[in-house]
Specification:
2 domains; 6 strands; elongated
């Protein structure tokens, strides 16, 4: 969404109030003024669009996820505990683009642990998952699957396939739930995972028939 620079003359008391509210919301003075004007003039800002997507996602996401407080309008963080000894935590961070182009945003998944064995399991799972997702998306014409696997972290771009805000929140929610189910299955019994993988893969493929991200 294009932006232009304008000069405004405002009372000092108004600026103080705006700055205090901008700090509380974790945004800038200009961005807050832009949002206030948009709300009063019935315009849609990127922040409103992202809020609608996250609100839809939050309403639909499984109760196994805990939604974390976030100061950025473009970022939503969720966490869940693995059914594994010491119950390590998996964090999911969804960051949306203000102006989506080829991608609507980025998903980052991280495991919170100091255990090298757990990190190795995490990396092994996502090595499998990356290959599987890329193959499935390519089979239906999406060859721009972009991801990165680090030491206990997985990052991928979320594809912009023209979904509406409501449907996009639902699609991200379904994808996260599907991914988390597969992660839980892998960590609960790594040695048996590939025997059960075909059933889990069918559920992912079914998601693609409804929405692609």
């Amino acid at each position: 969404m294009k932006r232009s620079v304008y000069s405004l003359v405002l009372m000092d008391d108004i600026i103080k109030a705006v700055d205090a509210e901008a700090y509380r919301r974790g945004t800038s003075r200009s961005n807050l003024i832009n949002q206030i004007l948009a709300e009063n003039l019935s315009c849609i800002t990127p922040e409103m669009r992202m809020h609608d997507i996250f609100e839809s996602l939050s309403e639909l996401i499984s109760s196994s996820f805990q939604i974390q407080q976030q100061r950025s309008a473009s970022l939503l963080t969720l966490k869940t505990a693995l059914e594994y000894k010491y119950r390590p935590t998996i964090n999911y961070k969804v960051e949306l683009e203000r102006v989506p182009d080829q991608f609507i945003g980025t998903l980052k998944v991280q495991i919170r642990t100091q255990s090298d064995a757990l990190i190795q399991l995490f990396n092994s799972f996502f090595a499998y998952r990356i290959k599987f997702e890329a193959t499935q998306l390519a089979s239906i014409g999406y060859n721009n699957y972009t991801c990165e696997l680090g030491n206990g972290s997985f990052t991928r771009k979320l594809l912009n396939t023209g979904l509406s805000e409501d449907h996009l929140g639902e699609a991200i929610s379904c994808y996260l739930s599907n991914l988390n189910t597969a992660i839980q299955a892998y960590f609960s019994a790594p040695q048996l995972f590939y025997e059960n993988a075909p059933e889990l893969e069918k559920k992912y493929i079914a998601l693609l028939s409804d929405a692609i991200i």
